[in-house]
């Protein structure tokens, strides 16, 4: 199965979206102002301690991502995306194939089935409210059907993430234990470039930050009772999308540069 929100700290901060700084006590959220045109990410360039990873995205005439090619020092990975009725239906790379299943009239998948090397590896159940994913339940089927974890996401009226919580499931006790929370969230009122496609939710390992309407600029991450404050650092293009983001986490420095096709 894909990694999940349990690795949010590494995935989000390490991807160059955030900078570890002191966290503001102000929990007011600035809401986004609608902008036109829409900007579609065509490339992400991620630089971390001298290592560079570039992800190039190809789109079809409906502005749906059909291919993502990730290249770096000594590796190149290609993921192909297919659609049915305008909705993402399949994602596959060299070893993993994910099938997206939808309920009637919904543009948010209710289930994602995952195979690794042709063998069923697990599935994810998604719950959505008003078109926003509010619950993610990950199952591992490599040895029976075992719940790995459950993630809850809350939004404000404008669709920005306000908090999230990850819980691990213990099949022996039939109990859930909270392992990670995201709170005190402040957003920038700018456009979240990952909101243009559900592909980014899949590519970013089910990271809830890819679901919000705006970019998180400050929050508190709590891992096993340890509170970790952080804040983001962004530059923006003329259409209010991030043109770059930077992060520093445990001494590791990362920057991400975004290239768009705005139309």
Which features characterize this protein?
Porin, 263 residues, disordered N terminus, 17-stranded antiparallel beta sheet, mainly beta, globular, 5% helix, 17 strands, 2 helices
Topology:
Blueprint: H1 8-14, E1 39-48, E2 51-59, E3 65-72, E4 75-84, E5 87-92, E6 96-102, E7 109-116, E8 119-129, E9 132-140, E10 146-155, E11 161-170, E12 175-187, H2 199-203, E13 216-223, E14 226-231, E15 233-236, E16 242-249, E17 252-262
Antiparallel strand pairs: 1-2, 1-17, 2-3, 3-4, 4-5, 5-6, 6-7, 7-8, 8-9, 9-10, 10-11, 11-12, 12-13, 13-14, 15-16, 16-17
Characterization of the model:
The protein is mainly beta. The chain has a single domain (5-262), classed as Porin, CATH 2.40.160.190. The chain is 5% helix and 56% strand. It is built from 2 helices and 17 strands. It has a 17-stranded antiparallel beta sheet, covered by helices on one side. A hairpin with a 3-residue loop joins β5 and β6 (96-102).
């Amino acid at each position: 199965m894909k990694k999940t929100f349990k690795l949010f700290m590494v995935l989000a901060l390490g991807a160059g979206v955030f900078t570890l700084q002191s966290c503001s006590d102000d929990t007011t959220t600035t809401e986004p102002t609608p902008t036109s045109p829409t900007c579609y990410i065509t490339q992400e360039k991620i630089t971390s301690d001298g290592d560079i990873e570039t992800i190039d995205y190809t789109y079809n005439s409906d502005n749906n991502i059909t291919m993502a090619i990730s290249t770096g020092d000594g590796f190149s990975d290609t993921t192909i995306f297919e659609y049915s009725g305008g909705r993402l239906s399949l994602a596959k790379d060299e070893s993993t194939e994910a099938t997206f299943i939808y309920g009637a009239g919904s543009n948010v998948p209710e289930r994602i089935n995952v195979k690794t090397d042709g063998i069923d590896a697990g599935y994810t159940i998604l719950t959505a409210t008003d078109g926003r994913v509010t619950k993610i339940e990950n199952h591992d089927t490599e040895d029976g059907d075992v719940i790995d974890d459950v993630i809850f996401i809350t939004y404000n009226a404008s669709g920005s993430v306000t908090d999230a919580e990850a819980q691990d499931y213990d099949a022996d006790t039939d109990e859930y234990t909270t392992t990670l929370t995201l709170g005190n969230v402040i957003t920038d009122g700018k456009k979240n470039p990952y909101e243009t496609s559900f592909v980014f939710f899949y590519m970013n390992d089910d990271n809830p930050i890819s679901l919000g309407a705006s970019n998180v600029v400050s929050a508190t991450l709590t891992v096993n009772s340890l509170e970790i404050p952080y804040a983001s650092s962004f530059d923006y293009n003329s259409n209010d999308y991030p043109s770059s983001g930077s992060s520093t986490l445990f001494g590791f420095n990362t920057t991400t540069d975004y290239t768009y096709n705005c139309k």
